[in-house]
Design goal:
The strands form two sheets. Strands 1-6-5-4-3-2-13-14-15 form a nine-stranded mixed sheet. Strands 9-8-7-10-12-11 form a six-stranded mixed sheet, with helices on one face. Helix 4 links the parallel strand 3 and strand 4. The chain has 394 residues and is α/β, with parallel strands linked by helices. Among the domains are: 164 residues, 3-Layer(aba) Sandwich (Rossmann fold), CATH 3.40.50.1000; 110 residues, Hypothetical Protein, Haloacid Dehalogenase-like Hydrolase, Chain: A, domain 2. It contains eleven helices and 15 strands. The longest helix is centred in the N-terminal third of the chain and has 23 residues.
Length: 394
Amino acid sequence: MRHNAGVTSATSPTAGPAAVQPGTNRPSRSAQSGARAKSEPAPVRAITGPEPSEGPCADDEAPPARTNGEAGAVGEADAERAAVTTRLRLAGGSPHSAPPSVSDRAWPEIPPGPRPRLIATDLDGTLLREDKTVSPRTLAALAAAERAGVTVFFVTGRPARWMDVVAGHVDGHGLAICGNGAAVVDLRTPDRERGVPYRFVRVRPLPSATVLDVAERLRRAAPGTQYAVERTGGIHHEPGYPPLHLDPASSIAPIAKLLGLDSGPVPQPEESEPVLKLLAHHPDLAPDAFLRLARDTVGDLVAVTRSSPTALLEISAREVSKASTLAQCCAERGIASEDVIAFGDMPNDIEMLTWAGRSWAMGNAHPEVRLAASAVTHPNTEDGVAAVIERLLA
């Protein structure tokens, strides 16, 4: 049953790439060279009751040749990449090699800065081990941080319905930013009316008409692309989308019908749920090539990123990212970016890592993530997050 009580609307502050840059003298990262054009920010909905109800909600073509200006930017990026690579190697690491062993007490590097007031950490490939559990050492480090008065935020591409398992491992402390910034979830307060162990605090949805436009454009550019739609209540996908073993689809239909734009005379209940993400999968393209193609094709309409090792893209409302939603949450608590530390491993973490005052890429991180972060720590399999927290609290 759908319920509409307790829903209020608000407009979010502009939180695009320029709005969330930290007040530091760190140079801009080459990974941000494909920044999206400025636009009106995505709407923010504060949800004080049950979730809201809305209206119906590679080919072989090469990317365009670079202009002279773009070529100059690439040259600057190459120089910056070389400088960062040198810094990493001097610190004992490399963008393309594992960090020193855990026994090396000088690792990980701790750049100078104030004692953190907030820790923002990605989950998969970062805080979690490969079996999707939290190690005892990491649990102890998080608990020590909270005892010291440091707030912990989980900032993930996961949907809210996957957070109960993680919350159970970490005693349900703190808020979670889910869907790459599309939702803020309170892990401590169950929504008994919906029967879930979390409560939506805020959502930043994608308009259905925009999703359909993006899907049609991208499919023309990359025939064979298949889509799934992530809503607050579940996931829905096209017939050709890869099978979902962990999270079976609530419905399977062509994209227009999934969006409620071709539903016939009787709309389905899920069509009123906010769309948080569009997922795009391609069976043949390389992941980074698909990401570049999508940003070139639809980056004027939406935010495109990825966190999967496969050619699976995560598409959110323009100006929505882990960084922009984290910036809003911090501003509400009077916490400046320089008082935040962040951890991540994949391209969907890059903006968050560059926004935070200090940040660490995991030893297993994507090369562009290593370049974006302030420093590199151990891989997720070697308690890289805990190693940094322990040194900061020592």
